[in-house]
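The records we work with from here on pair a chain with its fold. The integers have meaning only within a learned vocabulary of local backbone shapes. A complete example follows; check for yourself that the lines match position by position.

:::
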Amino acid sequence: MKTLYKYLSIFFIVFSLFLVSDLSSVATTLPQKEQEYIKKELPNASIRFDGLVSLSDGTLYLPVLPSNPNKNAKGKIVLTVPSGKRLSQLPDVVLFDTNFALLKVIKTKDGKSTVAQPKDIPLVVKTGLFPQDMLVPPGLYIPEELKIIMGDLKISTTASRVNDIFKEDSFIKKSAATTKFVPVQYMLGKTLLITSLDSKVVNVVPTDSTTPKFTLTLENLPKFILPVCNDDYILVAAAGKTYIDVADVKNEVLAKKLDLSYQPSEIILNRDKTRAYVSVCDDQSIFVIDLKSMSLLEKIKIKGYPKNISISQDDKMIVYQDKNTGDIYTLSLDESYLNKYVYNASNVSKLVIKDKNIYILSRTLSELHVVDTEIKDLIYKQKVAQKPVDMILRDNILYILGSSNELDTFNLDDFSYNNKIKFGNTGFAKNIVPVENTNLFLITNVSDKKYFVYDYKNNQVLQSVSLPVMINDLQIINKKLN
């Protein structure tokens, strides 16, 4: 009997995989009708890219894709367990007329995570499949009779690294009592992600504190960190690794790995933040990631090995430099992906492209060079702050940061140059970090372990904040993490 059950199980798994192969290939997107219904009944629900539905109170629903979809259905609920419930009442089982289903993650008396008893789950659900790229909640117990819906999914144990990416470390435990302060108005309720040059952790620091609340633990020194998708996820790349980790902020787990087969080095986003472009250390390529489905769209073959990548404000062009030769190229982001050599430069710290001009920040010469992409030649140069390290474009004005703690401006309308402000006389300025939907920049000082809140419209430093960690990179999450 056990042998018969085993073979029947194998048959059903293969059969179900065949039937839902089209659905599972796009498993990161739930059916539109059901998405609309979920959002209507549970306005605060979050639907993760792999289909997991989560609520602010910690409630989780696992989606089950049907082996036999009803394509003429209206996306209405036809069955719940307990019966007669609305989705807003959080039943254990929800079946739609499309045969798509949701299984609530529930707790047993001894605290284990599981789903409803098999006897309560309709056969049409039992023959479906979880999305095959879904992160199953760690430690989830699935009854033997329901193992068919797992397909090839693996269940993480509580000891896995999935659960270790968010945790408190020894540094926080040993540090002095948290220093609280009142941040400026537009920094209230935000969170900072801070990396240093000598640690594998990302420090998570509330903007009303000087002490990390907890850390994200990586496998090696971080190459970059970047909040995406309304700050629901964080993309993290570590030195020596060929993949990008996708951390789920809400559920505090590592939700996915995007393997590029090459070590990612830099990342930029398009204007509406639906796509990420990633350069790699050891290949002549730029990778395109769809942030809605959190999947790799394509690999663009290019000339040279890219660094200092930057995207135009209209999303039509990428500019980058070959790290081996110093050659600067443009890459058109239309279907042609036209890749053109423009200019050669050395010791470049930042590139910005606007219309037909590329603005090149030369660190050793302490100059800004303006290169025309049509004639492929230098048309203007300007002395700037000593050892310039960063540059950002706002309202047709370039803000240029020198490591000597000076911020200057260069107006693209008339090429006029002005000294704006000094940020003290010690330490080493590193980055300009824009605060979304405000007139604020955070100016970081790597050796002095501090950042300045700067109002660039009024040319005024509003606040200086000292931290217990060195700041190599800093990113902002526009919400307060628990």
